[in-house]
């Protein structure tokens, strides 16, 4: 091979390597820097969700704190230490005995707390369901107590190593031993707190309250009074109605798993770089395989007016192009798939936790309908918040204007460009997947069925449109039918039927949201009429 050919080969290899390196850094920056707050939040949730993070941090604190206090002891006046009432002033043998006792005691207590935690997790898995285990694992007080024990153990070992004889230049680290004694007393108090905390943690009401608070937090994350609907009003060419007629390319997930999150900013940037609209039909929490069609990429026609709009990059116009390999690599970074359902901002997952508790409470092995009623009431509270709030918009837009645009250029450009369309579950979907699921398992339990009927009445106070009213009426009819087909005694079925009919009449009445509903059974009405008749006869 000639020298000229070797130079050309080296030049081609260098050019190809630089090109691939540039594409890698470009793809990495698009995946990482876009939606950076959401990605950091997911990373933090994964760290907090692991049982090792806080205990490991406490161990590191103990490891770092030991040499710092020992160094302070080297430069601290011994006479000032003796003036402190509670400070340790003994010799090296006493210091070793104390540090050895503390290290052995806290390690044994740490093993005890870990055993208690495992027992609680085993009981919670059988009573509340395996998906509720994360709530116990991510319990911050539980992790901090275990971390305090292990951190004190690590600190005691390192201080024990630093204790020397008096004939050495530096003797007993008195301040470090004093701090270890203080930490041992704190660990004893934490053990009492841990036992009290675990007693409350295994109560069904506490678990339901935690799941309800998590669901309400997720509802406020998605639902708000402010919506992106003003862009929909000002959008030109009616892309919202017409994008389904454009050339469509199916979108497949990169691998199988549960759809946990959609990074909208990254997806909006991707759709605009390729001049189209990305539609995601799968909702959060759905399981998809790598062969599932989870959406479509609609490419704008070549003569579409939006193609003439400038992007934030100067003198760069939107040119529609078909998806290529880089498109699929970037799309894989726009969504987050997990092999198992994990805690996220998914409302359905949070509501499903309370539904699972209620379903397990209705099983023959547990048979605790009161817990199921508590779950129904908590779900009603969450659903009423959703009915009153503004649901999130399924349309997400891209603003092509930058800060250097003048008022003249702004007047000739649309306020936003349609970029991403997602599927938003309706309130009827949430009611069916939560309260409806409980109804199917509680078909033979009058207490739970009446609680479900009362839930529809309570939700009626929060409804804002006729569609929600029709959903509540439909659910009441299903409750009535479930009781009529499954209750063993016709008196119980008649009682439920009367309540459902009164509830349906109340919901259909005008101005029902400003009146109080009180169910009166036929038996109670008969007793009341008899008492009134007896009272009238007595007065005569």
Kindly state the number of beta strands: 8
How much helix, percentage-wise, in residues?
Answer: 55-70%
Which sequence of SSEs, written as H and E, runs from N to C? HHHHHHHHHHHEEHEEEHEHHEHEHHHHH
The largest sheet has its strands arranged as 1-5-3-8-7
Rg estimate, integer Å: 33 Å
For the termini, the CA-CA separation is 129 Å
Our count of helices gives 21
Structural class: alpha+beta
Low confidence ranges = 24-32, 226-234, 313-317, 403-413
Q: What does the oligomeric state look like here?
A: single chain
Q: Judging from the principal axes of the Cα atoms, what is the shape?
A: flat
Q: What profile does the largest beta sheet have?
A: 5 strands, mixed
Fraction of residues in β-strands: 5-15%
Mean pLDDT: 80
How would you explain this protein's 3D organization?
This protein has 540 residues and is of the alpha+beta class. It is built from 21 helices and eight strands. The protein has helices spanning 3-32, 36-49, 53-74, 78-83, 92-127, 133-137, 140-161, 174-201, 204-222, 229-234, 239-242, 264-273, 325-332, 347-361, 369-388, 407-411, 427-441, 446-460, 466-486, 490-508, 522-539; strands at residues 247-251, 257-262, 276-280, 287-288, 295-299, 335-338, 395-398, 417-422. Helix 15 (369-388) packs antiparallel against helix 17 and helix 15 (369-388) runs parallel beside helix 18.
């Amino acid at each position: 091979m000639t020298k000229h050919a070797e130079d050309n080969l080296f030049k081609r290899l260098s050019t190809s390597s630089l090109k691939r390196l540039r594409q890698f850094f470009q793809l990495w920056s698009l995946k990482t820097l876009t939606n950076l707050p959401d990605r950091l939040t997911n990373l933090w949730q994964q760290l907090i969700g692991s049982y090792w993070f806080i205990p490991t941090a406490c161990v590191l604190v103990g490891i770092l704190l030991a040499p710092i206090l020992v160094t302070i002891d080297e430069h601290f006046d011994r006479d000032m230490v003796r003036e402190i009432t509670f400070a340790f002033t003994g010799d090296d043998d006493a210091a070793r005995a104390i540090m050895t006792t503390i290290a052995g005691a806290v390690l044994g207590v740490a093993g005890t707390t870990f055993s208690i935690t495992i027992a609680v997790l085993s009981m919670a898995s059988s009573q509340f369901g395996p998906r509720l285990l994360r709530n116990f694992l991510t319990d911050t007080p539980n992790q901090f107590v275990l971390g305090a024990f292990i951190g004190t153990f690590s600190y005691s070992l390192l201080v024990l190593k630093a204790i020397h004889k008096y004939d050495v230049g530096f003797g007993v680290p008195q301040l470090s031993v004093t701090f270890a004694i203080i930490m041992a007393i704190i660990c004893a108090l934490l053990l009492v707190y841990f036992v009290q905390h675990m007693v409350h943690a295994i109560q069904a009401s506490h678990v339901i309250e935690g799941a309800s608070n998590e669901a309400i937090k997720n509802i406020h994350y998605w639902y708000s009074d402010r919506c992106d609907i003003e862009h929909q009003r000002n959008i030109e060419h009616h892309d919202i109605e017409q994008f389904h007629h454009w050339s469509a390319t199916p979108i497949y997930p990169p691998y199988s798993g549960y759809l946990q999150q959609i990074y909208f900013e990254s997806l909006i940037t991707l759709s605009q770089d390729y001049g189209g609209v990305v539609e995601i039909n799968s909702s959060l929490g759905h399981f998809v395989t790598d062969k599932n069609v989870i959406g479509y990429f609609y490419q704008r026609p070549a003569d579409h007016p939006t193609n003439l709009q400038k992007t934030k990059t100067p003198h760069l116009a939107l040119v529609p192009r078909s998806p290529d390999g880089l498109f699929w690599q970037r799309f894989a970074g726009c969504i987050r798939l997990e092999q198992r359902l994990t805690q996220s901002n998914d409302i359905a997952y949070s509501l499903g936790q309370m539904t699972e508790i209620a379903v397990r409470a209705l099983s023959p092995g547990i048979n605790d309908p009161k817990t199921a009623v508590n779950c129904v009431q908590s779900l009603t509270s969450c659903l009423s918040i959703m009915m009153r709030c503004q649901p999130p918009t399924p349309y997400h837009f891209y603003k092509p204007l930058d800060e250097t645009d003048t008022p003249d250029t702004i007047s000739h450009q649309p306020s936003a460009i349609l970029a991403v369309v997602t599927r938003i579950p309706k309130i009827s979907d949430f009611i069916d997947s939560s309260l409806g699921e409980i109804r199917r398992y509680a078909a033979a339990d009058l207490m739970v069925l009446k609680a479900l009927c009362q839930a529809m009445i309570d939700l009626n106070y929060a409804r804002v449109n006729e569609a929600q009213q029709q959903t509540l009426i439909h659910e009441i009819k299903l409750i009535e039918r479930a009781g009529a087909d499954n209750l063993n005694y016709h008196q119980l079925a008649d009682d439920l039927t009367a309540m459902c009919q009164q509830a349906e009449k109340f919901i259909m009445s005008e101005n029902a949201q400003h009146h109080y509903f009180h169910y009166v059974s036929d038996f109670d009405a008969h007793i009341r009429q008899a008492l009134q008749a007896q009272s009238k006869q007595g007065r005569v």
